[in-house]
Write a structure and sequence with these properties.
By secondary structure, this protein is α+β, with helices and mostly antiparallel strands. 29% of the residues lie in helices and 28% in strands. Strands 1, 2, 3, 4, 5, 6 and 7 form a 7-stranded antiparallel sheet that branches.
């Protein structure tokens, strides 16, 4: 009799565990600061504008050219949200101390609404990352492979694409 109850309890436990394993995990909570009304066009415009503001921090006498890409790409934030990603490439004069310029950009944002983090890339060149308080919008300021180029890569806050819009290609 005890063997029957033990077998029944074991079978019930096994079935319960099996059924529990088939349930979907809870959906991830939306980021509390995500603007549900933000469009990809607004996200793109805002990110491009901020990247231009960062570029404007470089003294004009050191700037040869600023090239802002008209299009970017969408990357996934979650299974339903995306961010717009693009960049600005600045050509600076050959006598520009690029490391000092990047350091000054990081210093400019200390104490602002952006968190500032610095590190070195695999070549040993300084990088400054600026992350907005919402944890979504961010910028990476770094020396490009060419020593006279500074790249400002921007990633927008997350947004939901309208139904029927495929996230591939240029945006």
């Amino acid at each position: 009799m005890i063997k029957k109850h033990l077998f029944a309890a074991t079978a019930l436990l096994t079935i319960s565990i099996g059924v529990a394993g088939c349930t979907n995990p809870p959906a991830p909570a939306e980021h509390p600061n995500t603007n549900a009304l933000l469009t990809w066009q607004q996200a793109k415009a805002s990110t491009q504008q901020r990247a231009q503001e960062i570029a404007a921090l470089v003294p004009a006498a050191q700037v040869v050219n600023v090239e802002s890409k008209d299009t970017g790409v969408l990357l996934s934030c979650t299974s339903t949200k995306h961010s717009w990603n693009g960049w600005v490439i600045m050509t600076v004069t050959s006598d520009t101390d690029v490391r000092a310029v990047i350091e000054s950009i990081g210093s400019h944002f200390e104490g602002s609404t952006f968190q500032v983090a610095t590190d070195n890339d695999i070549e040993g060149d300084l990088r400054v990352q600026l992350v907005a308080a919402d944890g979504e919008e961010s910028y990476l300021v770094s020396q490009d492979a060419d020593p006279n180029l500074i790249r400002i890569s921007g990633s927008s806050a997350c947004f939901t694409l309208p139904d029927g819009v495929y996230p591939g290609g240029d945006f």
